[in-house]
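lol forgot to send this yesterday, sorry. struct tokens for the thing we talked abt
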């Protein structure tokens, strides 16, 4: 029996979990390599037999969202794994030689540390296969012929990878909603492209991941767009503003932890804290303000992050009872 047939029958036997909500959106932050956690969260949700109705993502979140929405349910985890295996393949690896592996070099902390440093340096010089490649002569001291060339790296490899792994016709069939966040370079406004409102193609995914100055802006219908994280790295506000149902169970995958301690030096950890704060964004700031207008609206937010905790925002009705 073919593997495809087995997978299809397994999917048919699966009983989807009944949830007392009108929709189940999944919100993906941007975060580069940390986006691999998105795949694990989606796999866990899928294994829990929960049907996701909408994925809203920024940057790497948009890429993972396209891989999920742009594939049939039985193939989604497989395609996510295939993508991450492509882009995380080490450029400098230990040779597969029996006597060398017997020395346990790969398990040595110092060896792993320097191997990581070398791979990071190789990425800076060459790029990442299947994701981006270094431009031999980036337009640093002279103007480029086009804004689409203003970047240290070329994202053409990512375009090829997405074209091979994502079925954009399936995305545009509206079986599951996909929204990707971008920043309009001309106006500075946050702009979302939604599959239920317009056709989505590979340009929209590339635009959401066009983080300057490494990646150039992406042109769509005469406008240029940058990575949505330039304006907002956490697209939950868009889900709250444009939801089409009265109640929703929202899973937000937080890749950045806003909590931390002050640093006493100017070394890299201090820069890391600044980055974490900027990219984490105040997740629940908007959900505690004027958005709660209807007492009959039920809204729950489940947040999974680096600490693997779940936070639930009380419904307006329950909040009203507490005030009384």
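and heres what i got for the seq, position by position
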């Amino acid at each position: 029996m073919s593997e495809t047939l087995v997978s299809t029958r397994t999917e048919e036997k699966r009983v989807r979990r009944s949830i007392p909500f009108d929709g189940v959106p999944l919100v993906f932050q941007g975060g580069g390599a940390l986006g691999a956690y998105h795949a694990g969260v989606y796999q866990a949700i899928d294994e829990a037999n929960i049907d996701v109705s909408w994925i809203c993502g920024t940057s790497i979140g948009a890429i993972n969202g396209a891989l999920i929405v742009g594939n049939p349910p039985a193939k989604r985890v497989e395609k996510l794994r295939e993508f991450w295996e492509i882009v995380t393949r080490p450029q400098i690896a230990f040779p597969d030689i029996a006597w060398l592996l017997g020395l346990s070099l790969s398990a040595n902390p110092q060896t792993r540390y320097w191997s990581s440093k070398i791979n990071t340096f190789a990425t800076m010089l060459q790029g990442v296969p299947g994701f981006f490649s270094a431009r031999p002569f980036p337009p640093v001291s002279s103007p480029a012929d086009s804004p689409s060339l203003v970047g240290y790296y070329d994202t053409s490899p990512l375009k090829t990878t997405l074209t091979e792994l994502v079925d954009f016709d399936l995305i545009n069939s509206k079986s599951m909603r996909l929204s990707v966040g971008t920043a309009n370079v001309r106006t500075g406004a946050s702009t979302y492209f939604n599959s239920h409102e317009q056709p989505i193609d590979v340009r929209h995914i590339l635009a959401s991941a066009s983080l300057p100055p490494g990646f150039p802006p992406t042109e769509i219908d005469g406008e240029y767009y940058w990575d949505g994280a330039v304006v907002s790295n956490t697209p939950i506000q868009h889900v709250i503003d444009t939801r089409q149902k009265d109640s929703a169970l929202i899973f937000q995958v937080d890749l950045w932890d806003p909590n931390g301690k002050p640093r006493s030096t100017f070394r890299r950890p201090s820069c890391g804290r600044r980055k974490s704060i900027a990219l984490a964004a105040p997740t629940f700031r908007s959900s505690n303000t004027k958005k709660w207008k209807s007492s009959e609206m039920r809204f729950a937010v489940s947040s999974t992050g680096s600490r693997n905790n779940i936070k639930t925002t009380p419904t307006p009705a329950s909040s009203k009872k507490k005030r009384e």
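The radius of gyration is 21 Å. anyway ping me if u want another try
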